[in-house]
Write a structure and sequence with these properties.
Layout: H1 3-19, H2 23-26, E1 30-37, H3 46-54, E2 60-73, E3 76-88, E4 94-107, E5 113-120, E6 123-124
Parallel strand pairs: 1-5
Antiparallel strand pairs: 2-3, 3-4, 4-5, 4-6
């Protein structure tokens, strides 16, 4: 499998696992030193991501992820994605967020591409 295909598979698997709220599939797609950056918060790592995701238990997440740009630079790569997510909480509340992410991926010693840094610029829609 080419590096580009492997990276696209990581993005597809991440999105599919997000929609099914499958944190057990998402966590291995990250490096141990992963950092997420979102507006209004300090950067956070894997444990904080998992805790936040688990707080969404019972939510329904629908959306799309489109890779707009993908560049491979040795054992590092970046993607620029456009995301459009609709989240329905267990109590029926809805949130719609869309925008771009800039993601750095690293090819690790086992040959797997994993998300290492993610800047998420999604904003409320509507």
């Amino acid at each position: 499998m080419s590096d580009e295909t492997a990276i696209r598979q990581v993005v597809q698997t991440w999105m599919s696992a997000t929609q099914s709220c499958d944190i057990a599939t998402i966590l291995p797609l990250m490096t141990d030193d992963v950092l997420f950056m979102v507006p209004g918060q300090e950067p956070f790592g894997k444990d904080a991501f998992a805790a936040s995701f688990q707080n969404m238990a019972g939510a329904r997440i629908d959306g799309t992820s489109e890779i707009v740009e993908l560049k491979i630079l040795g054992d590092w790569a970046f993607t620029r994605n456009h995301l459009d997510l609709k989240i329905t909480s267990p109590d029926g509340g809805q949130a719609h967020r869309a925008g771009y992410t800039l993601t750095l991926l690293r090819k690790e010693a086992d040959g797997q591409w994993r998300l290492a840094r993610d800047a998420n610029l999604l904003a409320p829609v509507g």
